């Protein structure tokens, strides 16, 4: 099927794939002269006669980073008008919700810590934690401006800043009684701090490793961290690596929340494919807030 792309997602894992990839990861490494790829939303230009799709219909596929894509049979998903903004199909909303509701099992009254709160997952995680009944939600980020936006716009009660005082000290002040849930998009010293402040029986969902992926001193293919296993055992902390589980009804659920205003879609739109490399560079540098989308 020939598709004219309208949007594609610039996501941090591109850095890892350029660096050589990770064994057993779902995506192949990128070599010199390869075309980059990623989630995209496009309009059908022409489709096989044995499909129900017609020119102008919208589909989701993985051949982003190009204006037109020849998408092999079976590698697209037809979209409807479930979401008020088609670009929201490129968000990490489902990952954020699944990490909280399924993996970390947020309960009413929980204190939740989200690392990378201003990123694609984190910008939804604070909002969903509220919907699920969390009593207090704390996020981490890298700039005072982003910290203010977390609190003012996305339902966070407090934000801790990396690169200033130790994260563990800031987290202890923001959550004096400790934390029950972690949604970790970063790893590194922020994961260590969460273990230190975890209450007995805490549930940790490990979603991303931005500390390794975006490190200026590494290839982005490893994310080593030294943790105190004694604390994991003594506190009965549950660590679970996120594994996607697509929900066929997800778009309808998210669309309802977006239309009601219960949830917002924090994102940055970069106009024009010629500006996509800059968008990737800025994403790696931590400039943007929320999901980064190139609009064609």
Walk me through the structure.
With 296 residues, the protein is an alpha/beta fold. It folds into two domains: 2-90 and 266-295, Medium-chain alcohol dehydrogenases, catalytic domain (Quinone Oxidoreductase, Chain A, domain 1, Alpha-Beta Complex); 93-241, Rossmann fold (3-Layer(aba) Sandwich), CATH 3.40.50.720. 29% of the residues lie in helices and 23% in strands. The chain has helices at residues 13-18, 93-103, 122-131, 144-153, 167-174, 188-197, 210-213, 229-235, 250-260, 276-284, and strands at 2-9, 40-46, 58-61, 68-70, 77-78, 111-114, 136-141, 158-161, 179-184, 198-206, 238-241, 267-271, 291-295. The strands form two sheets. Strands 1, 2, 3, 4, 5, 12 and 13 form a seven-stranded mixed β-sheet that branches. Helix 2 crosses helix 3 and helix 5 packs across helix 6 (188-197). The mean pLDDT is 93.
Q: What would a concise description of this structure say?
A:
This protein has 296 residues and is an alpha/beta fold.
Percentage of residues assigned to helices = 25-40%
Within CATH, the superfamily of the largest domain carries the name NAD(P)-binding Rossmann-like Domain
User: Total helix count?
Assistant: 10
Give the uncertain stretches in residue-range form: none
Number of strands: 13
CATH topology label of the largest domain: Rossmann fold
Using the alpha-carbon principal axes, give the shape: globular
Strand portion:
15-25%
Q: Estimate the mean pLDDT confidence.
A: 93
Topology as a string of helices (H) and strands (E): EHEEEEHEHEHEHEHEHHEHEHE
- Give the N-to-C terminal Cα separation: 19 Å
Overall domain count = 2
Pfam families: ADH_N_2, ADH_zinc_N
Keywords: Oxidoreductase
InterPro entries: ADH-like_C (IPR013149), ADH_N_2 (IPR041694), ER (IPR020843), GroES-like_sf (IPR011032), MDR_fam (IPR045010), NAD(P)-bd_dom_sf (IPR036291)
Domain Enoyl reductase (ER): 21-294
